[in-house]
Amino acid sequence: SIPVIVDCDPGHDDVFALWLAAGHPALDLRAVTTVGGNVPIEHTSRNARIVLSVAGVVDVPVAAGASGPLERPLVTAEWIHGENGLGGPALPEPTVPLDPRTATELMSDVLEASDEPVAIIATGPITNVAALIRARPDLVPRIREVVWMGGSTERGNATPYAEFNALVDPEALDLVLRSGIRFTMVGLNVTHLALVTPAVRARLADVGTRTSAFGDELLEFFCRTNDEVFGMPDGPLHDPVAVAVLADPGVVELRRTRLDIELVGTETTGATSVDFDGMLGREPNAWVAVGLDVDRFWAGLTDAVSRLA
Ligand code: BDR
Ligand code: CA
């Protein structure tokens, strides 16, 4: 199985990314790190610990990272995720403790301890990965690849052309793209295929565990806010699609291309520029998700959840 670190900002869809990474037999979840994103870092760190506790995943260290972007003030998304970031269910006290290390320290320790390169899956603003590369460039060869949920080949969801994670910390994304680490972007163009339809919800609820019941309460809230904000009552469950790239190769179709991030635009800051046609004449530097086997994706997620508590 592939050793992975999940860097996240839970966030309803981040929860399912964590559960997919923890429950899928093809992945070996070595650590979880958190970042300020959907809600401030105090909430995302606590939320990660809560949802791992609910799922019975008590042996994976969780460390807090950056409270905000490298160079900008934090923008949050309470209107989708609620004030505490996990609107919907009553939240139990986490049994999983907060690791005393910083995210950079925990990631570094995991990379150094592993005898094979470790993949990093980032499902929030990519600040912590950028901070790690800055602090420990010597560890770059130990990073197998970075798979990130964010960006889009098309339109945005935070501004007309910027997706939320890209908009929050574009400088971090730019730094990661320049690092030379293998990079995969899983953007809205594909995550908007991972729609939580009533049938998907029923299938997950049918798992019949503590974890699936908690997940169902999350999805009820998430679908309601997505309906209110975007007119999408079948909310797109973005973040686990990035995990699926590694858990089940082939479930997400990838295309090699040039990817750049707009750092300063009058209207387009945070827009991802995906040069499929090579118009800019620059070397390809990334893989970009362009398709999703929707049924296989939900089957894998449902199966992973069924392996948890
Ligand atoms: C991304 O933004 C966040 O609100 C979600 O958790 C996801 O990572 C989607 O644009
Ligand atoms: Ca997220």
TrEMBL record:
One of its GO terms (cellular component) is cytosol. InterPro entries: Inosine/uridine_hydrolase_dom, IUNH, Ribo_hydro-like. Transmembrane segments: none annotated. It comes from Agromyces aureus. It comes from the Bacteria. GO terms for molecular function: purine nucleosidase activity. Residues 4-299 form the Inosine/uridine-preferring nucleoside hydrolase domain. This is Inosine/uridine-preferring nucleoside hydrolase domain-containing protein. Gene3D superfamilies: Ribonucleoside hydrolase-like. It holds the Pfam family IU_nuc_hydro. Keywords: Glycosidase, Hydrolase. One of its GO terms (biological process) is purine nucleoside catabolic process.
